[in-house]
User: What shape does this take?
Amino acid sequence: MDVLGLAKEYEPYIVALRRDFHMHPELSWKEYRTCGVVMDELGKMGIPCVKIGETGVVGTIIGTGSTGNGKTIALRADMDALPIKELNDDLPYKSTVDGAMHACGHDGHTACLLGAAKILNGLKADFRGTVKLFFEPAEEYGGSLSTFEDAGQLAGLDGCFAAHIWADMEAGKISVEPGAKMAGTDLFTLTIRGKGGHASMPHQGIDAIVAASSVIMNLQTIVSRELTPFEPCVVTIGKLTAGQRFNAIADTAVLEGNLRTFNPEIRMQYREIIERIAKNTAAAFRAEAEMTDYTFGTPPVINSPENAAFARETVLKLFGEEALGEMQNVMAGEDFAIFMEKVPGVFAFVGAGNPAIGCSFPHHHGNFNIDESALKITTALYAQYALDFINA
Ligand SMILES: [Zn+2]
Ligand SMILES: [Zn+2]
Assistant: This one.
C-alpha cells in the first residue's frame, strides 16, 4: 500500500478543499457549511457518516480485508476558524468573511482528513479493522469532544490520532516526540469581599481593590517562589473587575485567572495554593477571599513513550529519518488531550513554516499561512498511522 503515493495523487483535491475552507471560515459552533462539505465529500466516497450535534461529523470506514487486528482507530481533525481579520491581501483564496479567518490551520486538518478518508476507503479491501473519522467543531472554544462522547462515539475505540499543522516548525518536519508537548489549561475566579464607604473615609471601609491588588501580586510568587523552576508554569490574572465610582471604596473585586502547566501533579496543586494565598492575603487587609469558580479546562497533551515510538515508526516508514523534527513545547492547550486521557493515542505536529514563501507568522496572526506541502504529508500521516495501528 503506497500511502504516500496516493497522498501525492490526491494532493490537488486536498489543496482545493483546504482553499475552499480557507475562503469560507466559520467560527466555533458555527461550522455549518464546513460540516455540509465534509458530509458531501464523505457521501461521494460512499463513507457512511453521522452528524454529531449541529456541526460535528463522524465517518466510519470498515475494512473488509482479512489481515489486520480488527481494532478501531479514531482520527481527529478540527474544523473551526477564529474571529481574526485576515491580512493576507494577495492570497487568491483569502477569507471572504470579514473578521473571520482560518489562522490556526484547521482548514488544512479538515481537508487532510478527507484526503486520508479517500485513501483509506480505497484500501479498505486490504485491512481488517475500523477507522472512525472525527470532524470536530469548536476546538478553539475549548473543544466539543464531550458531545461526541455523549453520542456514544468514543465507545469501542482502541486508539486515537490527531495531527496539528504547525507553522513554527519547518515544513517537511514532523514531531511525534514523547512527553508533554502542550500545556494543561485551567481557569478560576476569585471574589474578594471588603466593605464599601466614602473614598475620603478609609477607616470606615475595607478596600477590596487594595486587597485584590495584593492578591494579584502575591499570586505571582507561585511560579517564582513555590513551584520548582524545572517545570514551566504560568499564572495569569486576565481580568479584574472592581469598584463603582472614583470616590467610593470598592466593596467587591472579582479576579479571573488562567493556569498553565505541562505537569499533571502541579495542575492538581494549583487550586490549594491559590486559595491559600488569596485567603491569607485578603485577611491581612481585613477582607475575605473566596474561590467562586474553578474549572478544569484541558489537560496537558502527553505522548506516552510507547505511543510516540509507534508513531515514530510510521514517520520513518513514510518519510525517513530526516523528517523527524524537534518542536519546542507550547503553552497553548488542546482539547484532544481529553480524548487521549480516555483512549491511548498520539498527537503529532506537522511542520508548515516556510519563510521563503511568507509562511513565517505565528498561529492566530492575521498573516498566518502554511506551506501547503504540509497537506499531503499530514494526509499520508493520518492514513499510514491508521493502517499501522490496524496492522500492528
Ligand atoms: Zn488555534
Ligand atoms: Zn489549532
The chain has a mean pLDDT of 97. The chain is about 35% helix and 25% strand. The pocket of zinc ion (ligand 2) is lined by residues 104, 106, 164 (CB under 6 Å).
